[in-house]
Amino acid sequence: MLLRDPVHGLITFEAEEEAILVRLLATPEVQRLRRIRQLGLTNLAFPGAEHTRFAHALGAAHVMQQLIARLRKMHDALPFWQRLTSDRARDALAAAFLHDIGHGPMSHLFEAVSAGGGRRDPGAAPSDSVSGIGNSTAARSHEEWTEQMLLDPNTGVHRVLVEDDPELPRRVARLVRGHHPLPYLARAVSGTFDVDRCDYLLRDARATGVHYGRYDLPWLLQSLRFGEATDDGAPGLAIDGAKGLSAIESFILARLFMFQQVYFHKSTRAAEWMIHAIVNRATDLLRDGTPLPHVPPGLHSLALGERLSVEQYLALDDQLLLETISAWRDCKDPILADLCARLRERVVFKTFELFAEAASPDKRHEAHQKVRAIAEEEGLDPDLYTALDVAVDTPYSDDRSLTVIFGHGRAHRPAEVSFVLDRLRDETLTRTRLIFASELRDRVFATLGQ
Amino acid sequence: MLLRDPVHGLITFEAEEEAILVRLLATPEVQRLRRIRQLGLTNLAFPGAEHTRFAHALGAAHVMQQLIARLRKMHDALPFWQRLTSDRARDALAAAFLHDIGHGPMSHLFEAVSAGGGRRDPGAAPSDSVSGIGNSTAARSHEEWTEQMLLDPNTGVHRVLVEDDPELPRRVARLVRGHHPLPYLARAVSGTFDVDRCDYLLRDARATGVHYGRYDLPWLLQSLRFGEATDDGAPGLAIDGAKGLSAIESFILARLFMFQQVYFHKSTRAAEWMIHAIVNRATDLLRDGTPLPHVPPGLHSLALGERLSVEQYLALDDQLLLETISAWRDCKDPILADLCARLRERVVFKTFELFAEAASPDKRHEAHQKVRAIAEEEGLDPDLYTALDVAVDTPYSDDRSLTVIFGHGRAHRPAEVSFVLDRLRDETLTRTRLIFASELRDRVFATLGQ
Amino acid sequence: MLLRDPVHGLITFEAEEEAILVRLLATPEVQRLRRIRQLGLTNLAFPGAEHTRFAHALGAAHVMQQLIARLRKMHDALPFWQRLTSDRARDALAAAFLHDIGHGPMSHLFEAVSAGGGRRDPGAAPSDSVSGIGNSTAARSHEEWTEQMLLDPNTGVHRVLVEDDPELPRRVARLVRGHHPLPYLARAVSGTFDVDRCDYLLRDARATGVHYGRYDLPWLLQSLRFGEATDDGAPGLAIDGAKGLSAIESFILARLFMFQQVYFHKSTRAAEWMIHAIVNRATDLLRDGTPLPHVPPGLHSLALGERLSVEQYLALDDQLLLETISAWRDCKDPILADLCARLRERVVFKTFELFAEAASPDKRHEAHQKVRAIAEEEGLDPDLYTALDVAVDTPYSDDRSLTVIFGHGRAHRPAEVSFVLDRLRDETLTRTRLIFASELRDRVFATLGQ
Amino acid sequence: MLLRDPVHGLITFEAEEEAILVRLLATPEVQRLRRIRQLGLTNLAFPGAEHTRFAHALGAAHVMQQLIARLRKMHDALPFWQRLTSDRARDALAAAFLHDIGHGPMSHLFEAVSAGGGRRDPGAAPSDSVSGIGNSTAARSHEEWTEQMLLDPNTGVHRVLVEDDPELPRRVARLVRGHHPLPYLARAVSGTFDVDRCDYLLRDARATGVHYGRYDLPWLLQSLRFGEATDDGAPGLAIDGAKGLSAIESFILARLFMFQQVYFHKSTRAAEWMIHAIVNRATDLLRDGTPLPHVPPGLHSLALGERLSVEQYLALDDQLLLETISAWRDCKDPILADLCARLRERVVFKTFELFAEAASPDKRHEAHQKVRAIAEEEGLDPDLYTALDVAVDTPYSDDRSLTVIFGHGRAHRPAEVSFVLDRLRDETLTRTRLIFASELRDRVFATLGQ
Asked: How far apart are alpha carbons A145 and A101 in whole angstroms?
C-alpha cells in the first residue's frame, strides 16, 4: 500500500508484518474514522483543520513503522527474547493504527457527554465545564470504547485481528492502554513521547497553519536508545542526551504551543460548548417524551441513559451529528432550534477570558453568576447560553516514560538535564473563560471590565 | 480579520476595501462552502484531501489581495481612469471570494447530474461519461448557480453586496464570468492565470501530498506587468519574460501534473461514477413513485425534472448527500441499497485503463461492450455497474489571456517564447478507462488482457 | 533589484526609499561581506553553514522592509511627527543593511583578538576563554568598526550615504547602536526583537539544517503594535498579546535552541580556539621578529599592537585569513606550522564537557590544570594546545525593549504574561568545556572520568 | 556519523558498509571540496549559492544510501549473484561520495582552461566560448582527474580504499565512469537519473532559492523497480510507470528549469567569462616571462603548458584562485590588474541575448564583430573584453539508462509513454549571448537594437 500524506509525504506499508494494516484499513470501524475530524469544531477558527482521525491513524502507524526501523538498528544489544520480532512489530503497528477507533464524534467532546450518561449540570463549576482534550475522564471513556471494539467478535477489526492470532485483539487492547512486557514498546504506544502525539502534533500544526507544533521527528527517532532496564529486565525508551535533548525539548514545547494556540482556542471552546448545550437540551426533551426529528438511535439511547451497543456507537460520527443538528433547526422546541441554527450558521458564542486573580475559583464563580444574571435578564436560559470554561493542561509532567542518558551514564529524567524542561516541570497551564451568547457581549464586557 | 491557512500561512483582511469580505464570510451561502469539499471523493485516494471550498474561497481572495498589491505598484503607468481604485479592488476581492458559491455537492460531479435534469444514459459514449473537472457543460452550470445566488435578492450575499452598492451583485457576477472593462482585472478572476487556479493548485497539492502542484506564486506575481492595450485602450495582464517565463511554465506544468496525478486518479473517477449511478438509480425510483427514506427536497425536485429553487439548491451539500446515501443503504430497492453500501464502506469500483490504439473510439466502445456482457452474466445491471470513462484535458491552450513581453518589445503568446509550452500547446491529455464493480475485476482483466 | 533568497524567497527593493540599498550594494565594504561567513567555522560541524554576512545583510534589510510596511499600516494612530516618513524608512533600511559591515573575519572571534591587541593569556580563567557570539567586549568592538566605516569619508558606504544627506552617516551609525528619537525604530534595529536576529535565526537554522531556529516571522510582524510612549512621547514596539504571545515565545526559544545546538557546538568552539591559538602564536613570532610568509599587512599591524587603518581592516576577510593559514603550514616555526596544518585538514581539537558541580569555577580550573599537565607530558604547549572554554548566554533577559499589551490594557514585560518566558527570565545557559589536541583524548577522558 | 544537512535534513552513516565514508571524509582530497563551491560564481547572481562540493558529496552518498535501501527491498527477485551485497553497496557509496573529487576550482570553468592547456582563442565561435556545465570536453577532463586521484597511491582516498580491498580504487574509478557488471548499479552512479543529479538539483534549488528544481525524491525512489535484463543477464533501473511517471517527468523538468534559471544565468556566464579572460591574460604574461605576484605553482605549470601533478592540482581551489586574483589587482600589467579589480568588486560584464534568427551562426558572428569593433574603439582588447557565449543543453535525451514499465509489460523509453517527455525528447535548449565590459553597454544596445 502506497499513500501520499500531507504530513509525512510518502507512506508505504509493504512489508509482511505490515500486511495487517491493509486488511484493517478496509474494516468499517477504521473507515468510520474518515467521518470524524481530528479536531472537532476547530475548523471554525482554523479553516484548514478538516483533517480526519483516519488520516491520523495512518500517520500514527507510519511513525510506528519508522520507530520500529530505528529500534531494530539498536536491538542487537538486547538479549534475543527482548528483541522486536515480526510478531511484536505487527502488534505495535496494529495498536498504533487502531488506538483511536473508539473516538466518538466531535473530538473528545462527545465522550464527556456519553460518559456522563448524557446529562450534566452545566455552568456550575470548573470541573463541570466543557471537557477538553486530555480530560482524564473523557480519555478513559474513549479508550474503553476502543477496547470494546477490539474485543467484540462482531466488529471488522476483531475479525481481521483473530485471523492472524486469536490472542491478538487482547494484546492490541493492552498495548493501546500502554501495557506490554517490553516497556520500550508499551511507551511507544502510550507515553510522553508516543506515536499518537508524534503524529497529531505535526498533523494539527500543518492543517491549522500554526507553525509552532513542528518539531524534528527524524532527529528525535535517531536520538533514541534503549534506557535502563525495569524490574523484569527489559529496557524502556531513552534519548541520547548529547544528540537529542533539544529534540525532546522542542517536542514538548510544540505540544505546549499547540495547546495555547489551537486546542484551547476561544472559538473552539465556545463551539464545543454549544454542541454540549444542544445535546443537553435534546436529552431533556427526549426524556420528557418530546418528539424530535431525525434522532439517531444511538443518541436516543444515550438520552434515555441506556447503554449503547457497539453498533449504535459506531453509527455516530461527525457527519451524522451535524446533519442531525441541521435537521433540529426545524424542531418545535424554540431553544433547541435556536441553538442548532446558531451552530449551523457559525454564530458562535463569545468568550471573556479571566486572568490572574480574576481567575481564582471564587472570583470566576462570581463572574459567572454575573453573566448568568445578564442572560436571564435577556431571556436566555443561563444553563444553556452561558458557561464557565476552565481548560487545564500540564505541558510537561516529569514522568519516567522517557529518560535521557549521556554516554555510559545513568538515566536522568528530562527535567534534570534540560534547561527548559526543568523550568516547565509540572507547571499547570490554565485558561479560564466565560462563554455566552454573542448578543450578551456588550453587557458582559461592560460588567466584567475592559 | 486574521486567519491561519495551511497554504498561505497568514491571511489578513484589514483594509477598508476588504471589509466586505468579513461581512460576506458570515452569509449562509459562504458558510455552506464549509460543507463542500474542494475535491469531492478524492479523499478516498488521498486521505489528506479533506479541504473545503470555504478554505479555497479564502485563499482565492488572499491571492487577489496580493495581486492587487502588485498591480498597484505598477498602475501609475496607466491613465487614471484605468487604475485600480478602492471600489474596483473591492469588486475583484468579492468576485474572487464568491466565485465558487454556486458549486453543488461532490465537486463538479453533481452539476453534471443537475445540468442534465438528473438523467443520463450512462456508459454509452465518451461524452456521456462521468464529467470531470474542467468539463465545459458542468462549468457553465455551476457558474449559472453562482450568478443566480448573486442576483437573487433573498440571498445573504446579495444583501451584503447591495449594502455597498446596488449595482455590485451585477458587477461581481460579470467579473466571475470574466467580464470587466479592465481586461487585466477580468483575466485575474477568470483566465489562464487566475486567482482561482493560483490557489487551488497550491491547496490541492498540499492537501493531497502531491508535490508537483507547487509553483512559485510570489515570483509569478512579481513578474506581472501590464500587457498590450485592447481595443478600448485598457491593458491586459502580461508576464515580464526575462523574469517570469519559468514561473509561468511551472504554473502550467503544475496544473498538468495535478491532472495526471490527482484529478484523473482512477479511484476518484470510479467513486464519482458510483455517486452518479446512485443518483441515477434513485432518480428512476422516485420517478416511478417508489418511496425512499430521507430524500432531501432538492434531490426530489431534481429527480422529477423540476427546476430547483436557490434555497433548495443551497440545502444540498456533501454532508447531506453522504448522509442520504448512508440512509439509503436500508432502502427497499436492492440495487440502490447495494450501491450505497459499497460507497459507504469504500468498496470502490475498479478500473482498467486503455492506452494508444485500444483507446480509440471504436476499440474502447468494443471493450466496454465486453465489460457490459460480463456484468450481465454476473447478474449486474451494466448501466449502473459498468462505465466507459474518458477524461480529457488540454493542459495548455495558447489563448491570449496572458501574454509575455521582453523589455520594450511586443506581446508574445507564451508558447511563442517558451521552450516547454511551445511543445505542449493545444496538446490533449486523455485518460480512457473502463469502470466496473470490483467483483468483475478478474474476468475483465482476463478478457481485456493486461 | 530582485533577488532570490533561500530564506525569504523573493527579495525586492524597488521603492524609491529603497534605492539607496542598490547603491550601497555596490560598495567594497558591502561586497567584502561576501567573503565573511555568517558563522565562521561552524561549517566544520554543519556542512551547509557556508552562508555569508552579505546574504544576511540583504535578509536583514528585507525584514526591515517588511517591518516598515507593517508599521505603516498602524502609524496613522501616531501624531504626524512620529510617523515613518520616507526619509526615516530609508535610514532604517540603510542601518539594517549596514549593521554588520564592521565584522572581522571568522565570525566574532577575530574581534576578540583585535580588541585585545592581538595578545591574550589563554586557558587561564573563564573570562579569558574563546569569546562567543554575544560576548559583550567583542560586540562593542565590531560595532566600533562599523561606526568608523560609516563616518570615514573615504569609504564607499560613506560616499553613498552623504550623496543622499550629509547627516546620514551619523544617523545610520546612531541607529546601528540603537539610538533614534523614535524608540520603535531604534528597537527594530537593535533590541530583543530586531531585524538582525529576525534574519539570522531563520538563516542559520536553514543553512545548518537545524529546524529549531524557525519561528513565524509573518505572524510576529502582524502581531506588532505601538507600545507605551516613552518620556519624550514617542512609542516603543509592542506585541498584541492576544495574537502574538506564542510568536514571541517561539522567537525567544528559537534563539535558545540555536545557542544550544549550533552557536555553542563543541566542534565550532574547538575550531575557533584553534584560530585563536594560531593568531596568538603568529603574534608572538612577529613580535620577536621571526619572518613568516604571506603576512597580510593588517595582521602584521595587529601583531605589533598598532592601530589598524580602515583600509587594512577591510582587507581582512575569511578567505584571506584561511589562505594565510594555508601558507603558514610551510613556515619555519614547527608549532605554528602544526596548528595551521591541523586546521587546514580539519583535525579539530577535542572537547570534554563539564556539568553541574564539575563546572564550578574551582573545579573547572582544577580540571584544566590536569589537562595542561597531560599536554606538557606529551610535549605540547598547554597555552596553545589546551583551553578552558566557558560559553555563556542569557536566553531571555526581561528588558523593556519589547512589551506585550492585551486589548486596551497597560504594557507588560513578556515574562509577566508568558508561561514559558516567566520561567526562563534571566536564567543563564552555560556550557563549560575543556579543549585539547585530539591526541590527548584518551588520557584526558581517562583522567577526568567517563 | 550523524550530520544535519539543509537539503536532506538528517544524514547518518552508521552501518558497517558505510564506515568507509567516515574514513574517506578525513582525507585531504575530500576536505578540499570544502573550498570549492558547487556553483562557482553563481553566488554573484544568487547570494545564497555558497554551498560547496563537499556538502554535495555528502548528499550524493546519502541519496545512494537511500537508493540502496530501496533496491534491497526488491532484490530478492534477482538471482543471488546479482544482488546488492555489502561489498557492492560499499563500492557504490564510495563512488557516490568521491565522484567529484577531480573538480577544479570555479565549477566546471577551470577544467576548460586546464583541458586546453591554458590557451584558447576566445570569442571566435560558439564552440570556443565559455564552456558550460555539461560541456563534454570539460566533463571528461574532470573525470580524468578523479580517476587519477583514485589510482594514485599517494592520495589519501587511495590509501583508504586499498585498506579495504586492493582492487577498490579501480572498481570505484570504473563506477564513477558508469561501468559496473550490474547495470542497475552503474546507472545509479552515472545515468539520466543518478545520485549526483538527484542531489545537486535539490541542493542548487534550495541554495539559490529557485523553487523549480524541487522534485519528489522519496516517491521517485519508491517508484523504482528492476528493468529488463541486459545482454549478460543483469537488469537495469526502471520506473514503475503507474506510480512514478510524473515523478520522473518532474525530475527532468526540474533539471530543465535549473538550466534556464540558474546554470545559464547571464551574470554567472559573464563572470565565468571574466575568470577565463583573467587566466588567459595571466597565461600570456607568464609565457612571456612577465613576473606576477603570488602565482600558485599549479597555475604556473598550466601557463607553461606543463602537465600538473596531482599534488599541484589539489592545491588549486576557489579560495586560492580568488586570493590570487585579489593579489593580481596590484600587478604591473594594467589589463590583468583591471580585470582582476573588476571581478573583485563584482563589476561584472554585461550581456546582450540573441534570439531566433539573430542567434544563427552567421548572424551571431556578425553581431560579435560589431561588439568587438566597439571595444576596440573604446580602447579595450576585444579578445578579453568581449565574447560570444553559446550555452547549449539537451534537457532530455531519450537514452535507455532508465526505462518505464507498466505492470508486467515490456520496458518503454520514458518519452514513449510520457506526454511531456515525448514533446521534449532530444530538443536542444540554446542561450546565445554577447558578453562585454559594462562600459560598452549603451553602445552595444544602441548598435544591436532594443
From this structure: 8
From B211, B253, B408, residue closest to D216, measured CB to CB: B211
SS3 D412: strand
Report yes or no on B123 lying in a domain.
no
A275 & A261 share domain: no
Least confident of A88-102, C132-146, C179-193, D141-155: C132-146
Same domain, residue pair A178 and A52: yes
> Is the full-model pTM beyond 0.90?
yes
Whole-angstrom Cα Rg for chain C = 23
Chain B touched by D425 (CB under 8 Å): no
Residue among D2, D5, D10, D72 with most chain A CBs within 10 A, to mutate: D10
Residues of C in contact with D340 (CB under 8 A): none
Interface test with D, best of C24, C36, C50 (most D CBs within 10 A): C50
Contact D100, D149 (CB under 8 A): no
ipTM of the prediction:
0.89
Higher pLDDT, C162 or C406: C162
A176 and A247 assigned to the same domain: yes
Higher pLDDT, D401 or C295: C295
CA distances from D151 to C9, D92, D158, D312 (A): 43, 17, 6, 16
Helix, strand, or coil (residue D361): helix
Question: Which of D250, D408, D426 would you mutate first to test chain B, the one with the most B CBs within 10 A?
Answer: D250
The per-residue pLDDT for range D212-254, each reduced to its tens digit, is 778 899 999 999 999 888 767 788 889 998 888 888 998 999 9
Least confident of A230-239, B301-310, D296-305: A230-239
Is A126 a member of any domain? no
Q: Are residues A368 and A389 in the same domain?
A: yes
Interchain CB distance below 8 Å, D257 and B245: no
Average confidence (pLDDT) over B97-110? 83
- Chain center to CA of B87: 28
Q: What are residue D76's phi and psi, to 5 degrees? A: -65, -20
Number of H helices, E strands in chain B: 22, 9
Inside any domain, residue B277? no
Residues A378, A410 within the same domain:
no
B369 in a structural domain = no
Verify whether the Cβ–Cβ distance A218 to D9 is below 8 Å: yes
Q: What is the mean pLDDT of residues A374-389?
A: 97
pLDDT classification of B234: cutoffs 50, 70, 90:
confident
Q: Which of B73-82, B368-377, C192-201 is least confident?
A: B73-82
Lowest mean pLDDT among A216-230, A340-354, B8-22: A216-230
* Whether C257 contacts chain A with CB within 8 A: yes
Q: What is the CATH number of the domain that holds B184?
A: 1.10.3210.10
- Cβ–Cβ gap A9/D218 under 8 Å: yes
Contact C222 B12 (CB under 8 A): yes
Helices (DSSP H) in B304-431: which residue ranges?
A: 310-315, 318-328, 334-344, 361-377, 382-385, 414-417, 419-424
Per the CB < 8 A criterion, the answer to whether B21 and B61 are in contact is: yes
**What percentage of chain C carries pLDDT values higher than 70?**
92
Query: Is residue A438 located within the same domain as residue A419?
Result: no
| A222 min Cα distance to partner chain D (Å) | 9
Containing H/E element for C13? Answer: none
CATH code (residue A369): 1.20.1250.30
Judgement on whether residues A294 and A305 belong to the same structural domain of the protein: yes
Chain A neighbors (3+ CB pairs < 8 Å): B, C, D
Domain of A73 in residue numbering reads as 2-106+134-265+406-426
- Domain total for chain A? 2
Residue numbers of C between 330 and 389 with CB closer than 8 Å to D: 344-347
> In angstroms, what separates the C-alpha of D258 from chain B's closest C-alpha?
9
Low-confidence winner among A207-211, B115-119, D30-34, D385-389 (lowest mean pLDDT): B115-119
The pLDDT of residue C112: 55
Phi, psi of D134 (to 5 degrees): 90, -10
C32 in reach of chain D (CB within 8 A): no
> Does A333 lie in the same domain as A238?
no
Option in D10, D73, D218 nearest A10 (CB): D218
